Amino acid sequence: MRAYLILLLAIGPALTTCDENVSVPPEPGPPETGVRLTTTTTGLDLDADGYRVTVDGTDIGVIPVNDMALIRLDPGSRTIALNDLAPNCSSADSLSQIVTIVDTQLSPVTFALTCTATSGVIRIAVQLSGTAVAGRYEANVDGRPFPVHPSKPAYLSGVSPGRHVVSLMVAPPSCMIQTGSQSVTVTAGQLVRDTVDAILSVACVRGNLWITAHTTGPTPTEDYHVWVCNWRDDCYERYWTDLGALGPNGFMTATLPSGSFWIELSRVPANCDAQGPTMFTVRRGERVDLEYTVACS
Question: Quick check: do 3-115 and 120-204 share a fold?
């Protein structure tokens, strides 16, 4: 048996020369006896290496995923098969066909294949509350930094199937990251690429003092209040300033001038024990984060 695989893209025009005394024979035309092999592949992540073609078990070369090739064969019954498919590619029909080769004819053989997605996409959205603040926002996906911004979702493609951890690690100094690390699961093996959402919340205001109150146990029905006094004053009652309400497990922000301050968390219920800072210092251009822990019984 003789078998020659000739890709149609390789068939070029006849050669010519400027020397009239030298004649170059044209390239041979397509075979008149054999198989016209066609591959059609749909789906995602197509096999970049193409498929190997065998005739009666003999490897004769590679055909791309969407192409046509002419195979010169002697007359008779032949088995044409495709091999070396990527794991995500398959055919609903058999990958082996028996064809009868007739002299001076090209018998058509077609293989239809489908490839599924081998990876997915994580769509990361930054949900902003408060005042929009320009600056650097950066998410982290499985330890890999990834730039994001509240103005539009960011897409991380080529994500392997499985569980992935997404978090917002960097935000402008006047913003507080409210969403901790979250887990998303990417699937593969479908005709549509899986896209999963990770929504990260951040609150931004134009303040240099941020205060939180982490509360455990029965949650108080009323807010706490935060009072401050500049240490340069005598800090009698009339020198204290009420910065406002601070909700249990909430946060508040304020803008203070540079300096050192006494601070007090008030309106804490009698069944709750509050622990936290009593003094802090504000420096120009820096943000101060203060945290109270309140245990209620």
Answer: yes
**CB half-sphere exposure, 10, CA atoms < 13 A:** 13
Structure tokens at 116: 């599924």
Cα–Cα distance measured from residue 115 to residue 51, given in angstroms and rounded to the nearest whole number = 13
Residue 238 φ then ψ, to 5°: -75, -10
> The domain 3-115 belongs to what CATH superfamily?
Carboxypeptidase-like, regulatory domain (2.60.40.1120)
Query: What architecture does CATH give domain 120-204?
Result: Sandwich (2.60)
- Which residues have C-beta within 8 Å of that of residue 118, sequence separation ≥ 6? 44, 45, 88, 161, 188
Give the whole-angstrom CA distance, residue 162 versus residue 159.
9
Profile the chain (297 residues) by mean pLDDT over runs of 10 residues: 50 35 51 90 95 95 94 94 96 95 94 97 91 84 92 93 95 82 95 96 83 93 93 74 90 86 94 94 87 95
The rounded distance, in Å, linking the Cα atoms of 261 and 154 is 41
Q: Can you say how many angstroms the Cα of residue 263 is from the centroid of all Cα atoms in its chain?
A: 44
- Please say whether the beta carbons of 293 and 211 come within 8 A: no
What pLDDT is attached to residue 22? 45
Residue 78 CB coordination number (10 Å): 21
Report DSSP state, residue 149.
B
Q: Which one is the CATH code of 209-296: 2.60.40.1120, 3.40.50.2000, 3.40.50.10420, 1.10.730.10?
A: 2.60.40.1120
